[in-house]
Amino acid sequence: MDKQEGMFTRWFVNIWREILALPSNFREMRVFSIVWFGQCVSVIGSGLTQFALGLWVYQQTGSVTRFALIALSSVLPRLLFSPLAGVLADRWDRRRVMIFSDLIAGIGTLVIAYLFFTNQLATWHIYLLTALSAVCNTFQWPAYSSAVTLLVPQAQLGRANGMIQFGQAAAEILTPTLAGVLLVSIKMWGVLCVDVVTFLFAVGTLIFVRFPKQTGIQKHQAAQSSFFKDAAAGWRYITDRSGLVGLLLFFAVVNFLWGMVGALIMPMILNFAQPDVLGLIISCAGGGLLTGSVMMSLWGGPKRRIFGVLNFELLSGFCFLLIGLRPSAALVALGAFGAHFTIAIISGSNQAIWQTKVPPEIQGRVFAMQQMVSNSMKPLAFLLAGPLADRLFEPLLAPNGALADSLGLIVGVGAGRGIALLFIAMGFVKIIVAASAYAYPRIRRIEEELPDISFADPAVASV
Question: Which of 316, 313, 319, 312 is nearest to 333 (CA)?
Fold first, then answer.
């Protein structure tokens, strides 16, 4: 008992020290904080537009398929353009890549606003804008993520990545409600104009600051090599290091499972609860993501970052089990909160590992490959989720189904309980995958076996 009390006391003292050190820590991250704030505002503006345009398409067409094409339009460009985006993030100045990405996305939104104002807007314009926005985001992400190592001391990487997750979580929570209010008060055209203003604000913060000079791909090297060879160099850097390969495959599986969740969580809940309960559960999930992001921003994650990845992935697996265990709104909300709580800590710890193990001059290409592989699993998850649920798992727990008299006594029987069983299966897969990663020395010891890169002095960054 005394030992447990001592461990709790040390943990509490360490957290309190981190809180007291926040003013000093954020002074070290002054330039990053300015850039981060601008990007947070931009993400919220983009979320407003995505919500409003999706609602407009569904109201105009009444077609779920046409509504779903918006999601497809946002995924495919990421797969197609990631290698090119990574090369340009290493060849060009990363601050300028971010500026041009925001400007082009803002111009695209302004065009949509004009088309709507003149009553010329059509659904294919929405798909085109969504694809253009996805392309801009594809170019911005490797530039932004690799710029973090130029702006932030190594010890603060986990905290910086937590702040990025916080911005995304805040956008997920705020945009549906805020978009609904704005659509009533200033209409669609006004929402689009707000988005343009947020892009300009993000560009303004980037113009206001200066990044430390990056080495990147030297000009004479760029002139002598093709984009394909430069992109292949990023992939080769990963494949030459089995720890990074293992970590990439680990997250490919994890992202596939999360894609299944996104496709199936709503129909599972609606089979035993009303839409207002669904909204409450989704709010709980967003609250979990926000809470985890705040914790990661203040804490910075564990010193052994790989333990932050694997331990919280194990916790996420148990939360998946909880979501499917019973047709109970309280249990599903608790599981959704816990699973989303782990995202920021897992993602922040993982990204910090990559940022400390990949040299700055190749980070754009490596991070682009990382993004491409992760996103490539989402369409597969969307394609498999429906058939797996409808043709395999739902019949198993239908009345008189093969498992109705066994697992059905625990999970329940009837519509939606097969999906719940699939959630339980995904939870076990998560636990097995995390345990396997623990057992694989190249992943477990990745921080010891791969040397840290040398960091630029963030003091060189200026306002």
Answer: 319
